[in-house]
Design brief:
transmembrane; histidine kinase; kinase; four-stranded antiparallel β-sheet; membrane; transmembrane helix; single chain; rod-shaped
């Protein structure tokens, strides 16, 4: 047996909306029809009672004035004593003692006729004759056709309810079809969209217009990601080609060399190139993970300690390095691995280009904590500062010619800082070299 919920979910949205609207309308209209059917009988009796009481009131005034009451509007008026016996010379009425008591109390009663005879509706009131005698003035009206009217009226209301539900269903089907037609056009347009194409927007300020705008924004982001991926792939292939070709050439030289010293020198060169290739691949993997949205959980990181640890990792062969911590501690909200990556790349970049010294400063502001790296190297020309964080970008100055880097270190720095809501800028150091300033959001240890 098929799962009804699964079958229902596989139906079209238009069909589901129409079915729900039709069922709800049918239920509401049928309930209203049944309620109205129950009100038809009391409504009809209320109209009859109004006519009867008007006739009784007129007849009572006649009795009180000593004149004989007259019959009006086809209603039969009788004058009885308080026991229910006639005093108007007519035959005995078909009223029981209980009926007489209700009529004296001013209540209207329905008296069923014998066998299949038509029931009669009675209303009455007590009037005082000029001689002081109490008289019960009553009026009667046969309820001919009332049962048929009530039954037929109930069936008519049920039929109208069914017809109304069908009309609601048909209207909902047409309206939802018209409302969803732009969605169908957008769906049919998607497979045929060329590269860089966009969906036609309906131009209306409703949900469909917002959907089309959001889809076009999504397509724009996909195009941007695709372009970045193509550019990244091309740049990566270009960057990988150089160390791989160098390793191959040097390996061929080493294999062909008969001199042991030459072979040893060749192996050392191959080792340098393989280390460069390994660093490049690690950078490419890190950027690929960042592009895929893999972000480690953020936690408080103490920057003064991390800076000192990064300086120790560089070793004694690097230029003279000095840590200038203007605060005893500075806590940033980031991931330890990200902070290590940022500090290692900035310090290695500064050491490659520094003439004699590198100064690392840690500052704490109200909302930000900063790490500033200054070197006394050739610096970065202003026209290159806006591109040094691009992937595989190398400035055509002394820094680029002497770096030997992969062109990914600063791009990794920018990506790691950006995804934490921070910022990194490059400028000119007071020592004449380059200054890199990284800002992270501050974490208050008291919170």
């Amino acid at each position: 047996m098929k799962d009804p919920r699964r079958w229902w979910r596989r139906r079209s949205l238009r069909l589901r909306i129409t079915a729900v609207a039709t069922v709800v309308a049918a239920a509401v209209l049928l309930v209203l029809a049944l309620l109205a059917g129950r009100l038809v009988g009391p409504w009809l009796l209320g109209g009859v009672d109004t006519d009867l009481r008007a006739a009784v009131s007129t007849a009572a005034r006649a009795v009180e004035s000593g004149t004989a009451p007259s019959t009006s509007d086809g209603l039969r008026v009788r004058v009885l004593d308080t026991a229910g016996d006639p005093v108007d010379g007519g035959g005995p009425p078909a009223l029981g003692d209980a009926h007489v008591g209700d009529l004296k109390a001013g209540l209207a009663v329905t008296v069923e006729g014998p066998d299949d005879a038509v029931p009669t509706r009675w209303a009455g009131t007590v009037a005082t004759a000029p001689d002081g005698a109490q008289r019960l003035v009553v009026a009667e009206d046969p309820l001919a056709g009332a049962s048929a009217v009530i039954a037929d009226g109930g069936m008519l209301l049920v039929g109208l309810a069914v017809a109304g539900a069908v009309l609601v269903g048909a209207t909902t089907w047409l309206v939802t079809g018209a409302a969803l037609r732009p969605v169908g056009r957008m769906r049919r347009s998607l497979p045929a969209l060329p590269s860089g194409g966009r969906l036609p927007e309906p131009g209306s300020a409703d949900e469909l217009g917002a959907l089309a705008a959001e889809l076009n924004d999504l397509l724009a982001r996909y195009d941007e990601v695709g372009e970045r991926l193509r550019r990244f792939t091309g740049d990566a292939a270009h960057e990988l080609r150089s160390p791989v070709a160098s390793i191959r050439v040097q390996a061929e030289v080493g294999v062909a060399a008969s001199d042991g010293d030459l072979a040893q020198e060749t192996l050392a060169d191959i080792l340098v190139e393989t280390e460069r290739l390994s660093t490049l691949l690690d950078g490419l993997l890190t950027l690929a993970r960042a592009d895929a949205g893999e972000v480690p959980a953020a936690e408080p990181v103490e920057l003064v300690t991390e800076v000192r640890a990064a300086v120790e990792r560089l070793g004694a062969e690097e230029p003279d390095m000095r840590v200038s911590a203007l605060v005893p501690s500075a806590w940033a909200l980031a991931a330890p691995s990200e902070v290590e990556l940022v500090l290692d790349n900035l310090l290695r970049n500064a050491c490659r280009h520094a003439a004699s010294s590198v100064v690392v400063s840690v500052l704490a502001m109200r909302a930000w904590v900063r790490v500033v790296v200054d070197d006394d190297g050739p610096g970065i020309e202003p026209e290159h500062r806006g591109h040094v964080f691009d992937r595989f970008y190398r400035a055509s100055d002394d820094r680029a010619r002497s770096s030997g880097g992969t062109g990914l270190g600063l791009a990794l720095v920018a990506e790691a800082v950006r995804r934490r809501g921070g910022r990194v800028v490059v400028g000119e150091s007071p020592d004449g070299g380059a200054r890199f300033e990284v800002s992270w959001r501050r974490h208050d240890r008291r919170s």
